[in-house]
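REVIEWER CHECKLIST
Item 1: Sequence provided? yes
Item 2: Single chain? yes
Item 3: Sequence as submitted:
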Amino acid sequence: MAGELRFGLLGVPAVYDATGEPRPLRSPKARALLTALLLAPGRAVSADALTQALWGDAPPASARASLQNHVTRLRRLLDDPARLHAVPPGYRLLVADGELDVRVFERHAAAARAAHAARDWDTVEAEAAAALCLWRGAPLSGLSTTTAGDALVQRLEEARLLVLEWRYDAALERAPERGAELAALVPELASLVTEHPLREAFHRQLMLLLHRTGRQAEALAVHRALRRRLVEELGVEPGDGVRAAHREILSSPGAPGAPGAPGGPAAPAARPARAVLAGGRPTTSPPGRAPRPAQLPPAPSHFTGREETARELRERLTDGGAGAPPVVVLSGMAGVGKSALALHVAHGLRERFPDGQLYVNLHGATPGVAPFTPGQALAALLRDLGAEARHAPEDPDAAAALLRSLLAPTRTLLVLDGAASAAQVRPLLPGGAGCGTLVTSRSPLTALDGAARFPLPPLSAEASTALLRAASGRDDLGAGHPLVRLTGRLPLALRIVAARLAARRALTPDALAGLLTDCEGRLRHLEYDDLSVRRSLDVALEALRTSDRESDRDAARALGVIGALDLPAYGAPLLARLLGAPRWRAQAALDRLVDVALLEETAYGRYAPHDLVRDFARAHREPRPADAVGTTALRWYGDTARAALLAIAPESRDREDRLAVPAPAPAPDDPAPGDPEGFGSLDAAFAWADEELDNVVALAERHTGDASGLVPALVQHLFPYLQRRGRLTEWGTLAAIAVDTARLHGDPAVTAQALTDLAGHRFMTGRAGEALALNDEALALWHGIGRASCVRRGLNHRGLLLDGLGRRAEAVDALTRALDLARSLDDPLSEAITFSHLGNLYEHSDARLAIVHHERSLAIGERIGHAVVRQSAHCNIGYAHLALGEPAAALGHFEVSLRVHGEYEDWHGESHTRLGLVRALRALGRTAEADRACALLLERAAHRGDTHMTGLARHQHGLLLHARGHPQQAQEQWWLALAALESLDGASPKVVAELRALTGGSSSPSGV
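Item 4: Structure as written out by the authors:
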């Protein structure tokens, strides 16, 4: 049956491959889309319902277009486009019988139920095994939003438990045949009893399994535990099945409860269990009547969210067994709700720890209060357990030993709130296996051996909204209200906002959101009565500032630098430059800020503050002027980008010219000027730029009025990375700022290079007219400076742009002059590039002549070993063959071009090669391959923000859809393509004209 499966919901939503293996979908949106369709297999699901499944109650403005993209990706993933149809009012996924694991499971479960009723135990076992093997985890897991499948999940979970019950019944009935196999089922069934403490069927089956494998005492213990729980929690006795199993155990010879057996009715009465009073004196009173410590502060009101974490905490704390007592650490930043969650869980475990609950606030993060020493905490705990002060040991080790002795025979829960360090906690840990310890701390206390750690993130948006509504009494607060974002989803901040709303009914949520929008003053508004986000954060910073440890003081200073610079993320090399310290000290400072929850390590070696900590850091920025900090950062980024350029750009005249543009001289007050570390490989340079690009953009946007020349120097060095990676959005932003700041700087070479780079971006994004104007301005500057190689490059660009604008005679003139200059400079690479451009020009009138020019370019590229020239030449020869109606010949060249691309990453070359590949495959009738190639091109172009290539790819996608008999879907793609291309400056006029004809001249469906 597994071989027939195609779709899976019994676990993370998955698509089964041809071998019958489930392949879970990695994209959350893809999982949500597939789930919504599979919840109504074979039926139409409206676009509105799918939008709700993907984005909840706050879909983006582009939701409908994005939904179409997600549907397209799902069709590609299914490798069977006919399965997923667009039908009014949405989409329908065809699912045959036996293709969905839920349906197969239900069929096996029904067969197992019928066999169980007929007492056909062989069939029960076979059908139950077939049903259970389909489960890969919790149904519909891995979804980020609540779906309409909640009821289905509950029904399936209950069905699974019933199948398990029938399976164990079959095993018990067949015990005479396979008695040796019963023991292997005990651990599995014991786990289910723990997970479902009130499900009598599992308890009955576990009792019988233990009894029939010779473990009568344990079987009776299971009965006692179940009976006590039912009586205490529900006020009822066990049912007939459990009572019958109990009688079977008692009637067996030698059973602990049988007459005459040890502990049976004729045995002497057992000694009452010992308990510990609050005064520490042993008592022989029955358990439950003895006084016990119950020190937990009240449970938090309006507790919301954290359901999964709370469940895991309960499991950890009640799973002591015979080993060491469980210790769990809840860690996280100030105000994230550590104490609230700890108390919420602790109150729910009071019955599991009947000998009491101890609570100590260790004051590791209490404003104005010094943290408890271990001795002070031990004295408080011993006093609470009844050890008189005059009898309590003064030696900390002896006091810790006494605490362990008092707690050893008990089942006590210890809550240690606000721990400052592992050294503070270690002496307080109990030694008895029946105890549990729950610690909260801003630090994960990694030096505390054997502890389970639970780092707490902020609440989800849904839980934040629920907390705001409940605590404020404002039921009209919507899920997407700005207050959720402005509080950083921190429970402390949310409770403060809720308190202010509850106290002043005239204060509207929108008005309060307006007050919080001012980041400089946000923390002032997050204070109410004794609640304050700022004071909670102050504790950590003040402790760092006044510490005797150098790394702590470095960390305090680092937070000030972070506040002054205010970038999206940080790494040790940049911070070392800003602090004027060795890299290892900067790394230690960052690690210490993570340890006290003032920074988060978002990826290895990358650190970022929470939004409210970012505001706090701004308020405590170091006294050095922010401009000085920003200038130092710009210098470091410029120096490191230069090192990246040396690793990314191959040796060429272009690289030499780029490096020859004058850079600003180092400032005398730079904390640590000097050459940055070089990059050991091309991959390392790309990885650095990938990591730092967001910071570079943020820094440049804050220095749009800088006249020092640092911004254009940084951008000119980063240009090869931006071009080869195809980071068009960031390239456009940075290049525009570079031009503006270069004009302020006043150096003509710097301005010319910035104009050239911006022209390159405009060309890549299809704005040829704008690119030509920028290039001509740069060309005039290069002429004035007398930089011949740069003039040659400007002429080359001019010829390429004029050709794209249809001004062929002017293009030939510019390219001919560029070719003469390249030969005079003895620059074969430039000569090859010019031949390439001439070939593109002749393709319009004489494709054979175009191939001759491209082959000349290819020959030079082969001779000098230049990958980009070889890649470009093969791509261009492919396009010339397409113009001649020779798609088979074109395909070979496109495939070679893509292989060469593996040697040298360049998005411009890759994208045009992939577009040509799609066209060649479509012309050859290889539509399935063309579909896959087009989908890949669309995905990569969209990821890079390449509107021009996205439009060209959608044009081809529409042609493929139309050829397969899907005219409506083809029209949708053509409308999107036309809208994309018409938003640009004269991009691809032939394609635009064709699209207008295909769509009737309208760039939107409403115009048809």
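Item 5: Key structural point noted by reviewer: The two ends are 48 Å apart (CA to CA).
Item 6: Recommendation: ____
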